[in-house]
Amino acid sequence: MTKQMDLGGSFTLPGTSMTLNRMGYGAMQLAGPQVWGPPRDVDGAIAVLREAVAVGVNHIDTSDFYGPHVTNQLIKQALHPYPDDLLIVTKVGARRGEDKSWIHALSRQELIDGVHDNLRNLGLDRLDVVNLRVGGVMGPSEGSIEEPLTVLAELKSQGLIRHLGLSNVTAGQLAEAQTITEIVCVQNLYNLAQRNDDGFINDLAKQGIAYVPFFPLGGFSPLQSSTLDAAAASLKVTPMQVALAWLLQRAPNVLLIPGTSSIGHLRENLEAAALQIPSETMALLDSI
Q1: What residues contact 23, with CB distance under 8 A and at least 6 apart?
Q2: How many Å apart are CA 253 and CA 255, to the nearest integer?
Q3: Which residues pair with 189 in a beta bridge?
Q4: Integer Cα distance of 86 and 18 in angstroms
Q5: Which of helix, strand or coil describes residue 161?
Q6: What is the pLDDT of residue 1?
Q7: Is 87 helix (H, G, I), strand (E, B) or coil?
Q8: Which DSSP helix (H) or strand (E) runs through 177?
Q9: Which of 11, 15, 196, 204 is a plausible cystine mate for 209, CB 3.0–4.6 Å?
Q10: CB-CB contact of 145 with 173 (8 Å)
Q11: pTM higher than 0.85 for the full model?
C-alpha cells in the first residue's frame, strides 16, 4: 500500500464541503511539447496521475485546451471512475489555434462548447469547479467579465457545474463576479519573483477564498535567485522545493498545483509540503 504524504494541511472551499489537501497537481505538462499533442510516454503520464492520487493528492488542475483534449483524456484513462474525494478543477475561456497559439474563446457558444468538451473528455456529468480564464497571456487586463461569467452561471444553474472560479483576474473583476455568482477560487500568476498579487491574496484570505498560483516555479523560465539557492543549501533541499514551501507558508488559503510528467519530480514537489522554512529565511525570501 502506498504511503500517504504530508501535503501541507487542508483548505475547504467556501460554501462547499470540498476539503482539499493544499498540495495538488497541475496536468498541463502531461501533454506534448508546447502543451500540444500527446506525451512522448503515455504510460508514464498515466503512472504520474495514479501516483499523485495514491499518495494523497485530491486536487487536479486541468483544461480541455491542454493538448487540446489530451490531458483530460489522460486523466479519464488513468483515474476514472474517480475517487469520491478527488476534485478536478478545469478552466474555459481559451482555445488552441492550428499554429499552437492560445486564443480567447469567450463567446457564449465557445463557453458552452468548452464546458461540454470538458464533461465529455473527463467522463463526467457535472464539473466540480470551472475557472473562467480571461486577461492577457501572462496577466490580467481590466474590463468587465459579466457577459462570459453569466454564461457559466447559467450552466451552473443547469447542474453542469458545481462551483465557479476565476483565472487571470483583478480584484475589481472578482468584486464584479461576486455580484453574479459565488466564487470559490482565484488562479493567477504568482511566485517568489512575481508578486503583484500580494495584497489580493490577503484580501482573498479574509474572505476564505482559495488562491491558486499558476507558474509557481516561474513557468517556462524557472526561478533564478542566489537568495533562493542559499536558502535551499541551508535547508538541504532543492531551490524549487523552497519556492513551493514559501508559497504554502505565504498564506493559509494558497493551494499549489505544480506540474510534472515524472514520478520522481512529482514526489520531489510533494515533499516540499512538509518543509518548514525558518522565519529568518522566510524574511530573506520575502525580500527577493
Answers
A1: 7, 8, 57, 244, 248, 255, 256, 258, 269, 270, 272, 273
A2: 6
A3: 214
A4: 9
A5: strand
A6: 58
A7: strand
A8: helix 171-177
A9: 204
A10: yes
A11: yes
48: number of Cβ within 10 Å: 26
Residue of 66, 82, 190, 211 marked active site: 66
DSSP letter, residue 29: G
Query: pLDDT per residue over 265-276, tens digit each?
Result: 999 999 999 999
| Three cell numbers written together for 288 | 527577493
Q: Are strands 127-133 and 87-92 parallel, antiparallel or unpaired?
A: parallel
| Cβ-contact 203, 221 below 8 angstroms | no
The one-letter amino acid code at 21 reads N
C-beta of residue 266 within 8 angstroms of C-beta of residue 260: yes
59-98 per-position pLDDT tens digit: 999 999 999 999 999 999 999 999 999 999 999 999 999 9
Told to judge if 66 belongs to the known catalytic residues of this protein, a careful annotator would answer yes
Q: CA 198, CA 279: separation in Å to the nearest integer?
A: 18
**Collapsed DSSP state (helix, strand, coil) of residue 140:** coil
Cβ atoms 80, 45 nearer than 8 A: no
Dihedral angle computed from the Cα positions of residues 192, 22, 187 and 37, in that order, rounded to the nearest 10 degrees: 100
Cβ proximity of 176 and 142 under 8 Å: no
Instruction: Quote the CA–CA distance of 213 and 201 in Å, as a whole number.
Output: 10
HEC per residue, 208-255: CCEEEEECCCCCCCCCCCHHHHHHHHHHCCCHHHHHHHHHHHHCCCEC
Helices (H), 86-184: 108-122, 146-157, 171-177
- Where helices occur in 178-235 by DSSP H, the ranges are 198-207, 226-235
Strand partners of residue 167: 133, 187
